[in-house]
Design brief:
The protein is mainly α. The chain folds into 2 domains: 104 residues, no CATH class; 72 residues, no CATH class. It has a two-stranded antiparallel ribbon. It has a two-stranded antiparallel ribbon with strand order 3-4. The relative contact order is 0.15.
Length: 206
């Protein structure tokens, strides 16, 4: 049976959204095997003699990861990426499961073979609108309470300007805007109206 795409594909994509936007401060770096669960990295345990992670080290990492995600964007790369990240030192999932998620060629469990090339994508840019959408889901399920300044929080966490600078250094053109509308599970999301979006769901804990 094919694993749900949220278990393998979308968390992986989310992981790559986060790497290029690390602010130039001391931050922990997650191990590769954290990709599968995308859990926050614990505070690093440092020996007294250990050198801290400083901007001169984190920015080359961000540069490298941005470059890697840009190379992963073409659909023609999906099969090779599945082969590379399926082993246990990364996702620890059967290669055919990962390939089905990334290529969009999968069995739907009802006897039908699907071919949806655009089922998933690697997006190296930290869209503020996606940050707002994530916050709407946190509000919907009761993880945040009260009034939420969606725009302010998204723009503080998702460092679009920094990522745009890195993309330019790599020879890519960053998006002209950091906000976009999405259609998610058949429902249109407008980042300019997050509260209306939260209240549009019949099922919620907010």
């Amino acid at each position: 049976m094919i694993e749900p795409e949220w278990r393998v594909g979308r968390p992986l994509a989310s992981y790559f959204w986060l790497l290029p936007i690390c602010p130039p401060t001391t931050v922990p770096i997650t191990a590769p095997d954290a990709i599968a669960t995308v859990r926050p990295a614990p505070p690093p345990i440092r020996e007294p003699s250990a050198a801290p992670v400083t901007p001169p080290t984190i920015w080359p990492v961000a540069l490298f990861c941005s470059c890697g995600v840009m190379l992963a964007q073409p659909p023609s790369a999906n099969a090779a990426i599945a082969k590379a990240i399926a082993p246990k030192n990364y996702l620890n999932q059967p290669e055919e499961v990962v390939a089905a998620v990334l290529t969009g060629q999968y069995d739907d469990g009802l006897g039908n073979k699907k071919n949806v090339p655009g089922r998933i994508d690697f997006n190296p840019f930290p869209w503020h609108s996606m940050g707002v959408w994530i916050l709407t889901q946190m509000k919907r399920w009761g993880y945040v309470k009260g009034d939420v300044n969606y725009k302010q929080i998204a723009e503080q966490v998702y460092r679009a300007a920094d990522c745009g600078r890195i993309m330019k250094e790599l020879g890519y053109t960053p998006p002209a805007t950091t906000y976009a509308k999405y259609t998610i599970m058949g429902k249109v999301f407008d980042p300019a109206q997050p509260e209306a979006y939260v209240k549009s769901f019949k099922i919620s804990r907010s």
